[in-house]
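Supplementary Text 2. Reproducibility record for the structural model of the 110-residue chain.

All settings were left at their defaults, and a single model was retained for analysis rather than an ensemble. We include the record here because the model underlies the residue-level annotations in Supplementary Table 4.
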Amino acid sequence: MSEKNEHINDWIEKGDHDLGTAKLIYLHIPQYFDVIAFHTQQAVEKYLKAILISKNITFPKTHNLIYLFDLLSDFIKIEEQKYNQAIILNNFGVEVRYPNQTIHLSDIEL
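Retained model, structure tokens:
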């Protein structure tokens, strides 16, 4: 396997870990909305970075999903619905990790 493919697989594996963590928490401690949302955002971020690497698109260190979609949109069409979902998820990438930032989600929003 090439070094590039290994790097892509590393990002996908880390994304899978975040998504798996979000699923486990949702199943066992569903009231931990902030942690579920954080890991979901992290999974999407890592999957986007894997796609960017596969397209040879360089990106800076960022948690901004909209920025990552913008980079990718020069190479593939991104549906408006995906952007709208990314806007929602963007709010959970950093801020919810701190005590003064509480979120309340319903199952529908998840």
